[in-house]
Write a structure and sequence with these properties.
Blueprint lengths: L3 E14 L2 E7 L12 E4 L11 E9 L4 E7 L3 H7 L6 E8 L13 E6 L4 H12 L4 E7 L8 H5 L3 E6 L6 E2 L7 H4 L4 E5 L2 H13 L3 E5 L15 E4 L2 E4 H4 L2 E3 L8
Parallel strand pairs: 7-8, 7-11, 8-9, 9-10, 11-12
Antiparallel strand pairs: 1-2, 1-6, 2-5, 3-4, 3-6, 4-5, 12-15, 13-14
């Protein structure tokens, strides 16, 4: 897909959690096509200590409002600056970058989307894309506690939502791979994004039950075009750049010890 370097305008920027901001960006022209799983590299202009763009997953695309949504986890100086951006300010972004999820072959099969932490970000747009194409996705979201589960009403627009929390304050207590839905329902395909231990556990479950599974890797990505080699992942095809050859990989390609 063609990549664009655009000066995007902040339509809104809301702190939806002490560690997360929901950034909605727009442009004077129609935004380019963006697919679930792709991401943007956003430039940080007002921080002399931040030299590299920040890779942020595309959380949703609202075509009616011509908005691209980004769920920003505040972890350092760069993301802190993004969370402080005001309505009407400008952000320069390179997008869309990376590949996309493989769509199921038949709408009749059950599809599960698993997200943990900021890994829920690409799951919302994927769920919307699936529903608009005749599928009935289910979401399994994991977090430390109820307050850390993000945007449940938005996910509920596109499918049934199941949840786990480590402290048991919402949904079932434990980790996503311990949720009872995995033993009750038969899923034909699983998509996942989140901390690597979570994705490894999901991949192990999928392999044990013969389920097709794709994951969105969160390796550190500096350039977004495969030039800096800091996001390399060892795969069955050799060492691949997650930003260029991913971030979506079938678990059969990954050399994880599962």
């Amino acid at each position: 897909m063609k990549k664009f370097i655009l000066d995007l305008t902040v339509e809104s920027n809301a702190l939806i959690h002490e560690n997360y901001a929901l950034l909605k960006l727009t442009h004077r022209d129609p935004l380019p096509e963006m697919l679930p799983g792709q991401f943007a590299e956003i430039r940080i202009d007002d921080s002399p200590a931040t030299f590299l763009r920040r890779p942020i997953s595309i959380h949703n695309v609202d075509r009616e409002r011509n908005e691209a949504w980004f769920l920003v986890q505040i972890v350092g100086e760069g993301t802190k600056r993004l969370a402080q951006k005001k309505e009407g300010e400008t952000l320069n972004a390179v997008l869309p970058l990376g590949n996309t999820f493989t769509m199921p072959s038949s709408p009749s099969g059950q599809v599960l989307l698993v997200g943990g932490g900021v890994g829920v970000a690409p799951m919302l747009y994927l769920g919307r894309h699936l529903k608009e194409n005749g599928f009935a996705p289910a979401f399994l979201l994991g977090a430390r506690s109820k307050k850390d589960l993000l945007q449940l009403p938005e996910f509920e627009q596109y499918g049934k939502v199941y949840a786990t929390t480590e402290d048991g304050s919402f949904g079932e207590k434990g980790y996503v791979t311990q949720h009872s839905i995995l033993g009750k329902a038969s899923f034909g395909r699983i998509y996942a994004c989140g901390p690597k231990p979570m994705m490894v556990s999901v991949a192990r479950h999928a392999r044990q039950h013969g389920i097709e599974c794709e994951v969105s890797l969160e390796n550190k990505m500096a350039c977004g075009i495969g030039a800096c080699l800091c996001c390399v992942e060892n795969t069955t095809e050799g060492h691949l750049c997650v930003c260029k050859d991913g971030p979506i990989f079938n678990i059969k390609e990954l050399l994880w010890q599962i």
